[in-house]
Design brief:
The protein is mostly helical and 242 residues long. The protein has helices at 4-23, 27-35, 41-62, 69-92, 95-114, 125-142, 146-155, 160-184, 190-213, 219-241. It has one domain. It has ten helices and no strands. The chain is globular, with a radius of gyration of 16 Å.
Length: 242
Amino acid sequence: MFDLSWILAVAVIILASSLQAMTGFGFAILAVPMLLLVFDAKTAVGLSMIVSFFSVTTLSIKVHKSIIGHIVINLLIGALFGIPFGVYIFFNFNVKTMKILISCIVIILSIFLISGYRFKIKNSSWVERIVGSISGLMTASIGMPGPPIVLFLNNRQLPKDKFRATFACYNALVYVPSILFLFFLGAINKIIILKALTLVPFAILGGILGNNIFPLVSQAHFQKGVPLLVLITALYSVLTVI
């Protein structure tokens, strides 16, 4: 188990969990493409989901006072509808092809936000549930719940502490049904779970590093940096699977 691929996974997990602690998101966006370099698609997605769950749950507990509860609830309701479709895609479609398609959409949306454009979306529960459905589909199919939620919350220009806490809480909750679905259907097995558990301490270490950096990032830099970060990781995701 503790071979070269595991050592690479340790480095990826520390980096990804640091990013997640700083922003509330980014673990899967960064981890999945890099883990695909040494693991098959199902193992990479499974490892990312399990380790990210522990990492983001720890963060959610730490920042729980800043969570916007009604947004989390609506996003999660939507995700529960999207997850079964994501599971179907996971078993019946090429994961790499899905990553390219989704990354291209994310790239386009990120460019709009970086340019300063704001989508005129009403703050309604139905909009939040639709965004949650897309996220749920992406969670179960490619292990990436983040992009639609990140772009949606950034578009609403939330304060960075509320952005981070709200997304982290949603992330922790949406992973639970996704992991259970994939486990009972055999996509996540005991070997993947054990390997993931050996990586959890390094996710905690990365989280500590990210939390120490978070106060140093201003609101303005956070607002501009989030879509730029999503754009860079989406481009990287496409390049690693072409």
